[in-house]
Amino acid sequence: METSTWYVIKQRLAWIKMHERGVPVTQVCQYYGISRKTFYKWLRRYREGGRDFHVLKDRSRRPHSHPRTVPRAIVERLLALRRVTHYGPRRLAYYLSQEGYRLSVFGPSAEGLSIGNGQVW
Description:
The protein has six helices and no strands. 58% of the residues lie in helices and 0% in strands. It folds into two domains: 3-56; 72-116. It is mainly alpha-helical and 121 residues long. The radius of gyration is 25 Å and the shape is rod-shaped. The chain has helices spanning 3-20, 25-32, 36-48, 72-85, 89-98, 110-116.
């Protein structure tokens, strides 16, 4: 872990240890300049994690899924067509629709997929 991550974990652990020594939550929060809500969030995670200090690390904010993600099969077919034909996004969307794939030229489109996969129109 990075140095800054360890610092944050040590700080959070210090809040919890201070409270465990009998200091009221209000005083702990005033001393460290945090809200009670923040304190209780980290205390809950610490206790649910089996008192393992690694659970005090920040979690990723990255979404678990993206509902509009284009299936891998369509992306691969699109890129294969692009390499062979050198067509633009509208024509590629048309040819893919003829093959039974549903792909809009707008939104996460043929153009966006090619740019995201290292190809430029």
